[in-house]
Specification:
Helix content is 34%, strand content 29%. It is α/β, with parallel strands linked by helices.
């Protein structure tokens, strides 16, 4: 069980700016962004393409570094960490769910789901127990030996969710997780993530322009031109 306390920030961004060069031009993908995400939140970054949503997730996920400002995960400033420390942080404290699933095609559902636990050096017996329990949790019991090309898009995304939550991360970052599935499958995936949030306290932050995700999110943060232009919490 992951502790759930939405009053305690897991993530804090303070005046974060990220600039990309396009030829001779500079584009502020994120512009002096300040926000905080609390434990147990089920929240979404929304806005049109180019608004800075994915860049913000990449900064929180330590996949990119800001040009200015600070990104804090729990009590650590990502700017102060070495490459090795950032790699360990991504492995141990951040779960990732991508629209393209990003599963290893030669590995089975079981092997994909246990991948991070294997990297962490978790003993085999414990890995097996945790991984099988997770596959059952996400509705893939009996499919553990199937490879990604033997699974539907929705099933592949369920494997990705199991992999993301396996190490009990501080936060799961989900970048357009419903983009490549139909409406029924999207609804089932959102049901699953809501259940994990409500019953296990898993913190989710989505990047999305999908109305289905926005309807489910308990907090909507709207971005435009790299800035936060709205922040609405739902009852």
């Amino acid at each position: 069980m992951i502790e759930k306390n939405s009053n305690t920030p897991i993530v804090r961004l303070s005046s974060v700016t990220k600039i990309y060069k396009q030829g001779r031009m500079e584009v502020k993908a994120v512009d002096a962004l300040t926000l905080a995400i609390g434990k147990g939140e089920f929240s979404a970054l929304c806005g049109p393409s180019g608004s800075g949503k994915t860049t913000t997730l990449n900064l929180i996920g330590a996949l990119d570094i800001p040009d200015s400002g600070d990104v804090m995960l729990e009590d650590r400033n990502l700017r102060d960490l070495s490459r090795t420390e950032l790699s360990r942080l991504r492995r141990d404290r951040i779960g990732f769910v991508f629209q393209a699933y990003n599963l290893v095609q030669v590995l089975t559902a079981y092997e994909n789901a246990e991948f991070v636990l294997n990297l962490q050096g978790v003993p085999r017996a414990e890995r097996k127990e945790r991984t099988m329990a997770l596959l059952k949790e996400v509705g893939l019991e009996g499919m553990e030996n199937r490879r990604p090309d033997e699974l539907s898009g929705g099933q592949q995304q369920r494997v990705a969710i199991a992999r993301a939550i396996a190490p009990e991360p501080a936060i799961v970052l989900a970048d357009e997780p419903t983009a490549n599935v139909d409406s029924a499958t999207a609804g089932a995936l959102l049901d699953l993530m809501e259940k994990l949030n409500q019953e296990k306290g898993v913190t989710f932050l989505f990047s999305t322009h999908d109305e289905r995700v926005m309807r489910r999110a308990k907090r909507i943060m709207t971005m435009r031109d790299g800035k936060l232009v709205g922040d609405e919490a739902k009852n």
